[in-house]
Write the structure tokens for this entry.
Amino acid sequence: MPIRPENKERYPNDWKLRSRFIREYRAKWRCEWCGARQGEPHPVTGSRVILTTAHIYDKQPESCSLLNLAALCQSCHLGHDAPERRARIRREKYKNQLSIFQGVGA
């Protein structure tokens, strides 16, 4: 997954090197969770696999120890991040709903 623009400055300067190390040397171009191979069809979805580097335990961009990172296919990465993504969408929806009612009755 690409780095969100608002978080880019929070990643270490050597992020690209760490990400490449995880995907190429440690994972040998395979998803560390399901085994899908980079560039080949995903065994479940059939889409071409693009490996990403995911934060596993501590989701903060600054937490880039090699033990906190994993090479994941898009399917595994999206599944891993789904609870946080749903929570963020709910917060944004709630915030937008509040903004509609600001000033009502004032």
